[in-house]
Design a protein that fits this description.
Number of helices: 10
Helix content: 40-55%
GO molecular function: acyl-CoA dehydrogenase activity; flavin adenine dinucleotide binding
Protein name: Acyl-CoA dehydrogenase family protein
Bound molecules: flavin-adenine dinucleotide
Keywords: FAD, Flavoprotein, Oxidoreductase
Number of strands: 10
Strand order of the largest sheet: 1-4-5-8
CATH superfamily of the largest domain: Butyryl-CoA Dehydrogenase, subunit A, domain 3
Number of domains: 3
Largest sheet: 4 strands, mixed
Order of helices and strands: HHHHHEEEEEEEEHEEHHHH
CATH class of the largest domain: Mainly Alpha
Low-confidence stretches: none
CATH topology of the largest domain: Butyryl-CoA Dehydrogenase, subunit A, domain 3
Family: Belongs to the acyl-CoA dehydrogenase family.
Cofactor: FAD
């Protein structure tokens, strides 16, 4: 693995870092308090080309690699995890499945606005009874004759915790639903899952109120209900019955960008704490000159380095078309734990100021918990890694 960034990747990272410092960071506390996704900032990110980074130019994208997306997500997460996850989920869960599995008509309809950040897409997988065990999905979609001799999917059920699903610019939600049953070679019967595109505003599709979350206040998250929702048969995304396999791949890949997000959070905590340790004078000396504080900062730096190397490695495997599932899980595990640990240490270094919501490290402290839960919990990552070791787990 080559850990040196190319000039182009470095330039992108610097550009997004500057944008994060000058545009995102100054407004982060205000939006966090108001619990509102700043659409003007999303629009500026769209103008910078961030939502189109890993997509081919023919789809309106920037034609860059997946690591470039990760670098952008990391740079944003240093100062605001909510903004970073809006990009990470918007691209990895919202746009990627349409680019990868969409028909020419679906791409033509949805991509122009999505890759430019004029619209957001969401991916609805999780349900009340189906989180870690996504195969337990209960939402159903049945095929019925539709108007004018065509046919429709009729969707019934509900989803929860869906990122980017209720913003004023959300255009479409990809929903996983049971479309039938399949009998395996060994005779066992399994649910057949498929993915279906549901445009925002479709009759019977209701977006519930925002959750009162511990963190990620600026990120948009809602429960969704589907009551006799009818969409044209052409809204099937990918092959019938391939929904499960397709979303598992989307999640594997998404974990690399999610790990970049967690790395950015860990890095942001390190930068804030280091700055403070150099200037806060207690007992007649800067607190950073106390060996305990210096060593704490050393550990924080080591965690960031380890997390970054892990996601670079997983991204490099993805780019070279070699198996990356286990490495993506390791990256997600290591980086989310690094973010949590760094947020705790940074808050401690700030003393009382670390307990004020206006302090970015306090926001990281609240925000980082979900890094161990979203896109597969820590236990799910351990399960994947154990299976990679040949254990049944
Ligand atoms: C802010 C936020 C945004 C989200 N965005 C999205 C989104 O855009 N789209 C989407 O589809 N979902 C989204 N999610 C859902 C998220 O992916 C799930 O919450 C997560 O996968 C866990 O599922 P669960 O909450 O049902 O927990 P459960 O699956 O009920 O797990 C409960 C606990 O049991 C543990 N556990 C479960 N199975 C095992 C096992 N076999 N061995 C050991 N421990 C186990 C888990 O690790 C966890 O600690 C989001 C969640 C949050 C909080």
């Amino acid at each position: 693995m080559n850990t040196e960034l190319t000039d182009e990747q470095r330039k992108l990272s610097d550009t997004v870092r500057e944008f994060a410092d000058t545009v995102v960071a100054p407004a982060a506390y205000q939006y966090d308090t108001e619990r509102r996704l700043p659409l003007d900032i999303i629009r500026e990110m769209g103008d910078l080309g961030l939502f189109g980074l890993p997509f081919p130019v023919e789809h309106g994208g920037q034609g860059k690699d997946y690591l470039s997306l990760c670098l952008a997500v990391e740079a944003l997460a240093r100062v605001d995890q909510s903004i970073a996850v809006t990009l990470e989920a918007g691209v990895g869960l919202g746009i990627m499945p349409i680019v990868r599995h969409g028909t020419a008509e679906q791409r033509e309809r949805w991509l122009p606005d999505l890759v430019t950040g004029r619209a957001l897409a969401a991916f609805g997988l999780t349900e009340a009874e189906a989180g870690s065990d996504a195969g337990a999905t209960r939402t159903t979609a049945r095929h019925e004759p539709g108007p004018d001799g065509g046919s429709v999917w009729v969707i019934d059920g509900s989803k929860q915790f869906i990122t980017n699903s209720g913003t004023p610019i959300t255009s479409v939600v990809t929903v996983t639903a049971v479309t039938g049953q399949e009998t395996r070679a060994d005779g066992t019967v399994k649910k057949e899952l498929s993915s279906i595109l549901v445009p925002a505003g479709t009759k019977g599709f209701t977006v519930g109120p925002s959750y009162d979350k511990v963190g990620w206040h600026t990120s948009d998250t809602h429960p969704l209900t589907f009551d006799d929702v009818r969409v044209p048969a052409e809204n099937l995304l990918g092959e019938l019955g391939r929904g499960y396999a397709n979303f598992l791949h989307a999640l594997d890949e998404g974990r690399i960008a999610f790990a970049a997000l967690a790395t950015g959070a860990a890095q942001g905590c390190l930068e804030e704490a280091l700055r403070y340790a150099r200037t806060r004078n207690v007992f007649g000396r800067d607190i950073g000159s106390h060996q305990h504080i210096a060593f704490t900062l050393s550990r924080m730096a080591a965690r960031v380095h380890q997390a970054r190397l892990c996601y670079y490695d997983a991204a490099s495997r993805l780019a070279n078309d070699v198996p990356f599932k286990v490495e993506a899980s390791i990256a997600k595990l290591v980086s989310s734990e690094a973010a949590m640990a760094n947020a705790r240490d940074a808050a401690q270094i700030f003393g009382g100021y670390g307990f004020l919501n206006e302090n970015p490290v306090a926001r990281h402290y609240r925000d980082s918990k979900v890094l161990e839960i979203g896109e597969g919990t820590t236990e799910v990552q351990l399960m994947i890694i154990a299976r990679g070791l040949g254990l049944e787990a």
